[in-house]
Amino acid sequence: MKPKVLILIGLIFVILSCNNDDEIPQTEINGEYVGIFERGGNNSNVELTFNNGNWSGESEIIKFPALCNGTYSNSGNVITFENACPWTAEFDWTLILGGEWNYSLNGNSLTLTKTNGDKYTLTKQ
Length: 125
Hints:
By secondary structure, this protein is mainly beta. The chain has one helix spanning 2-17, and strands spanning 31-39, 42-51, 54-59, 69-75, 78-83, 99-106, 109-113, 119-124.
């Protein structure tokens, strides 16, 4: 009977000690990044800054992409952007940084990708 109890206790300990290594804490992406935004073969130089759930950005080409500022949250490898700026109607609003993006952080390299093919390739400064 004792061996079964010890095995059960050991199994419970192993299960409870596991954590999810895929989750990237928000603080890890904090900082200033420079790089490029890509859509459909067109590129633009961009700068993005992340600071504890707030973001701001600029693009070399006006409204390609449309960057301003807002908030973000992340879970696992998905980051969700909320844009806080008002925009006029004369351009493609899918260029506004918002919604869910997949992201990967590898050292100083941050890559953001959207299901429509948009991509940010950034390097931390």
